[in-house]
């Protein structure tokens, strides 16, 4: 009886998450034991970015997920990103530290409503932003990311009309850049819709030397103030390459961690949400924590599962994107 109780306690200890100070080393040990690669998006907490094997934008993370020879992919990002990794690498175990890490764009574009939208436009080519579910990808002709959307749309036959989903702000920007008319699904990102224009104007007054960097998920009235617009990686590279000494950044402030690491002598200013709220941080991305990262590697769950029909249908437009991306 006493031995059984002691064994129980030992098992409980083996399952207990290590104290915060020991977490990075414990995660590293598990990563080696599982032959895992940790991929992280720039909107993750700094301590997650610091432990990741690779940090990137959606396109770069997809490429890494397709090319890795690890047995396990831990995706520190949101659900559609981990799902894309599973579509590209079905034989690997793909873990997402918190399964609740969704995305307003993906969640507000359900597969059945999207099928009805497509049915209203049967002659259209369907281009979907990667921020959508596998079931929506499976109904698309081509997937794009914020990094390649303009270039890909420009490559489409001029005589074919185009549906673009699910981000109307990105779609409008692509429309302006490419000169192609797009029929837009009316979705948007809660984070990129939240930035206060008034706060942005005040930051511009306070730091007249600063460049404004913006993600194309922002609304047009904010993009109109931008000196440079691009995906998260492109914004980071712009901050490195630009001669400017300061930057006002219109995207999720997680990216500032890599910007400050890359060019520590430059100044970075995040733009708050309206009413000064901290809702400029993505509530989904920030669900992942170091503790959940350790836990998912320890338990090998939650893992992304997909039915094979949906997966193989969703794969074709992603592969088309990878082939067409320069
Ligand atoms: P990128 O990192 O591809 O620019 O995408 C940003 C995003 O929407 C992540 O949610
Ligand atoms: Fe989705 Fe917006 Fe969060 Fe990106 S920042 S995951 S688009 S809700």
Q: What does this 3D model show about the protein?
A:
This protein is of the alpha/beta class. It has 3 domains: 2-101 and 286-306, NadA-like (Rossmann fold, 3-Layer(aba) Sandwich); 105-189, Rossmann fold (3-Layer(aba) Sandwich); 195-279, NadA-like (Rossmann fold), CATH 3.40.50. Helix content is 45%, strand content 14%. The chain has 16 helices and 12 strands. The protein has helices at residues 2-15, 23-34, 46-51, 58-67, 79-88, 104-107, 111-119, 134-137, 149-155, 168-178, 197-206, 220-223, 232-241, 255-262, 290-299, 308-324, and strands at 36-41, 54-56, 72-76, 93-95, 125-129, 142-144, 162-165, 182-184, 211-214, 228-229, 246-250, 267-270. The chain has a 4-stranded parallel sheet, with helices on both faces. A 4-stranded parallel sheet has the order 6-5-7-8. Helix 13 packs parallel to helix 14 (255-262). The protein is globular. Bound molecules: 1,3-dihydroxyacetonephosphate (13P) and iron/sulfur cluster. 1,3-dihydroxyacetonephosphate (13P) is lined by residues 41, 57-58, 131, 145-147, 215, 217, 231-232.
Blueprint of the fold:
Layout: H1 2-15, H2 23-34, E1 36-41, H3 46-51, E2 54-56, H4 58-67, E3 72-76, H5 79-88, E4 93-95, H6 104-107, H7 111-119, E5 125-129, H8 134-137, E6 142-144, H9 149-155, E7 162-165, H10 168-178, E8 182-184, H11 197-206, E9 211-214, H12 220-223, E10 228-229, H13 232-241, E11 246-250, H14 255-262, E12 267-270, H15 290-299, H16 308-324
Parallel strand pairs: 1-2, 1-3, 3-4, 5-6, 5-7, 7-8, 9-10, 9-11, 11-12
Bound molecules: 1,3-dihydroxyacetonephosphate and iron/sulfur cluster (SF4).
Iron/sulfur cluster (SF4) binds next to helix 6.
């Amino acid at each position: 009886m006493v031995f059984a109780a002691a064994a129980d306690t030992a098992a409980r200890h083996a399952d207990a998450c290590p104290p915060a100070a020991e977490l990075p080393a414990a995660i590293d040990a598990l990563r080696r034991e599982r032959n895992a690669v940790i991929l992280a998006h720039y909107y993750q907490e700094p301590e997650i970015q610091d432990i990741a094997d690779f940090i990137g934008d959606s396109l770069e993370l997809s490429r890494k997920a397709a090319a890795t020879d690890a047995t396990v992919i831990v995706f520190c990002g949101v659900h559609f990103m981990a799902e894309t990794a599973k579509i590209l690498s079905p034989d690997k175990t793909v873990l997402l530290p918190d399964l609740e890490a969704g995305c307003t764009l993906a969640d507000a574009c359900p597969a059945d409503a999207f099928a009805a939208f497509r049915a209203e436009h049967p002659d259209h080519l369907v281009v979907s932003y990667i921020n959508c579910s596998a079931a929506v990808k499976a109904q698309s002709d081509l997937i794009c990311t914020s990094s390649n959307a303009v270039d890909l749309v420009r490559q489409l036959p001029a005589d074919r009309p185009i549906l673009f989903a699910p981000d109307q702000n990105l779609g409008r920007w692509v429309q302006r850049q490419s000169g192609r008319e797009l029929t837009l699904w009316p979705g948007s990102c809660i984070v990129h819709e939240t930035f206060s224009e008034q706060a942005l104007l005040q930051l511009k007054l306070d730091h007249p030397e600063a460049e404004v960097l913006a993600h194309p998920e922002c609304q047009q009235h904010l993009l109109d103030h931008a000196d440079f617009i691009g995906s998260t990686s492109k914004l980071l590279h712009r901050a490195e390459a630009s001669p400017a000494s300061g930057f006002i950044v219109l995207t999720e402030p997680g990216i500032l961690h890599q910007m400050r690491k890359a060019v520590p002598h430059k100044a970075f200013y995040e733009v708050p949400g309206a009413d000064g709220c901290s809702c400029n941080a993505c509530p989904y991305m920030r669900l992942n924590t170091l503790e959940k990262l350790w836990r998912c590697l320890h338990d090998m769950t939650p893992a992304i599962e997909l039915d094979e029909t949906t997966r193989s249908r969703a794969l074709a437009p992603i592969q088309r994107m990878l082939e067409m991306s320069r």
